[in-house]
Amino acid sequence: MSLDERFWSATLEELKQGFVLDEETDSYRCLVCGESFLRGEIFRQGERMFEAGKYASIHVVERHGSMLDYLLRLDKKSTGLTELQKELVGQFAAGLSDADIVKRAGGSASTIRNHRFVLKEKARQAKLLLAIMDMMEQGQGTANAPKFVPIHRTATQVDERYAMTEEENTSLLKQYFPNGPDGPLMSFPRKEKRKIAVLRHIASFFKGEVKYSEKEVNERLQQFWSKDYVTLRRYLIQYGFLDREEDGSAYWVKESGNDANEIAAVTSRSKEPKSGKGKEKVAISKSGNLSKEQRKLLTAEYQERERSMGVYQITNEKNGKVYIGSSNNLDGLWNRERFILDMGTHMNKGLQGDWKQHGAEAFRFEIVEIYKPEEKLRYDYKDVRDEEGQELAGVVRDYRRKMEKLKERWLEKLQPYGEKGYH
Q1: Where in the chain is the domain with CATH 3.40.1440.10?
Q2: Which CATH number does 309-420 carry?
Q3: In whole angstroms, how far apart are CA 310 and each of 326, 328, 366, 397, 410?
Q4: What angle do the packed helices 229-238 and 192-203 form, to 10 degrees?
């Protein structure tokens, strides 16, 4: 059974804990990366020993942050949640009050309460749907129903192209790989459904948790299509099967979003021993979620990270119009902008109108320039003073002015006025 099959067939409790018991191999398997832990085997963690089931839950937290973090990074087509809703769920789970969330993202307390209500309604509907589907599966009428190929969790857009039965998939692979599954590829299909089947098969030749150089990727793809392996590489990225560094220095099987490795690294760093104090013990809850101690460590590191400032662009991919903005806090900016636009209160009326007409999916966000200050700035601005001991409020105003000047240069360069933009 493939990793995606295990993931989609897991029970609610198994999804929450992040691993399943594989009866065939008598081992616990991580639902995120597929790593297995043989039942009965003992694993060492620091100075303590754990049996396989307990160690599997430790693995989920250390490697992937938590199952809540992981599930919230999945696509809207997988969870049914918008980016805004996912952000709010994370804040609700962290124990933030409605007032705290309003301070962070704007809006009003009544709006946040309304989101809580909507999420509760979604949960009620999901319960009923699960019960209905469970009873349907138990009925005799589904005994001969076709079995669909699981959709990979990192698919960039899920639609009817993925409605493929195992029988259809097998037939297509025989057609496009007449000499066997190892290739070569007879031709690259034009139809999207067939294209996905071929790409899914080729992606299965790459191992999860392994970083490949571009040369290694090319060598693997050449065995399938030496004529144009670059096209295969591009499509594997485009359809969410593989991910890569911006400079192409490393490629890997995509897990759940661009920040999967980053979050795992932050979690790991937060538990490294501090000099002179020995290894710090961090409690892990049975549910696999971050413990209170872990959250404190992550929060402290979050506040000490370097502040990111610069200019950003929002592009309407329906008509090509752009909006240019600047900020002295780029972290989470797109989520804040989306929140304001979803609330219908954005200060740019043209952008707001098109957002309402075309929907969030029609817009792309990108950072066009990052400002590099001479001194390192903590995220919370602590310990930032100029040579004359300028007060914090003055420092903040000064950087805001610099960002505005940077924005003006981009407005002059791009001229996003009239039909070209929202200014």
Answers
A1: 309-420
A2: 3.40.1440.10
A3: 6, 6, 11, 14, 11
A4: 100
